[in-house]
Design a protein that fits this description.
heterodimer; A: mainly beta; 6-stranded mixed sheet; 0% helix; B: mainly beta; 7-stranded mixed sheet
């Protein structure tokens, strides 16, 4: 059974930093493309970032609102993908989901990030 | 960036009725379109990829169709557990984008 477990969310002040983690199991993590998707309270879904598998080149992509502030990385030895978030803004407040694949076939339960003074 | 427009915003139907949800893209997607279902307090769930391929375990009352810029998700007979928000999403190029969602509510 595929499992994705996010961690690292919490309350942070504007301008602060946070690192999210997502541990995967039940699939061959090293072959999987991994994504982060977020959902602001009461709003729709927004794709944030993607990292391809190392066999597929390991390229990263970002949504425009987070480019230059967020960084996605992976550690295949730990079956974990990370999202380093810097220069956080109040509009980054959201539930952040970790998802697998080219299309987003499996999702974690999400971790809440609140940016507020 | 590809913009996806979903309609209607809200669909009010009764159990047993047919639901037809639309997703229109600002440029051709070929068939690189997926549909997701989200219930309150839960993560989204993949229903359809490749515009028409049901994901594993998804009941056959859900069907996707379309190509290019116009896509449809049809729920043939609504079950009580189908009342939720549905999103379309393209994945053929970066950035990936989602539609704004259609809420299917009980009439």
């Amino acid at each position: 059974e595929v499992q994705l477990v996010e961690s690292g969310g919490g309350l942070v002040k504007p301008g602060g930093s946070l690192r999210l983690s997502c541990a995967g199991s039940g699939f061959t993590f090293s072959n999987a493309w991994m994504n982060w998707v977020r959902q602001a309270p009461g709003k729709g879904l927004e794709w944030v970032a993607r990292i391809k598998s190392e066999p597929d080149g390991g390229a990263v992509d970002y949504a425009a609102p987070v480019k230059g502030r967020f960084s996605i990385s992976r550690d295949d030895s730990k079956n974990t993908v990370y999202l380093q978030m810097n220069s956080l803004k109040t509009e980054d407040t959201a539930v952040f989901y970790c998802t697998t694949g080219w299309y987003l076939d499996f999702w974690g339960r999400g971790t809440l990030v609140t940016v507020s003074s | 960036e590809i913009v996806l427009t979903q309609s209607p915003g809200t669909l009010s139907l009764s159990p047993g009725e047919r639901a037809t949800l639309s997703c229109r893209a600002s440029q051709s997607l070929s068939s690189y379109l997926a549909w997701y279902q989200q219930k309150p307090g839960q993560a989204p769930r993949l229903l359809v990829s490749g515009a028409s391929n049901r994901a594993t375990g998804i009941p056959d009352r859900f069907s996707g169709s379309g190509s290019g810029t116009d896509f449809t998700l049809t729920i043939s007979r609504l079950e009580p557990e189908d009342f939720a928000v549905y999103y379309c999403q393209h994945y053929g190029s970066s950035p990936l984008t989602f539609g704004g969602g259609t809420k299917v509510e009980i009439k």
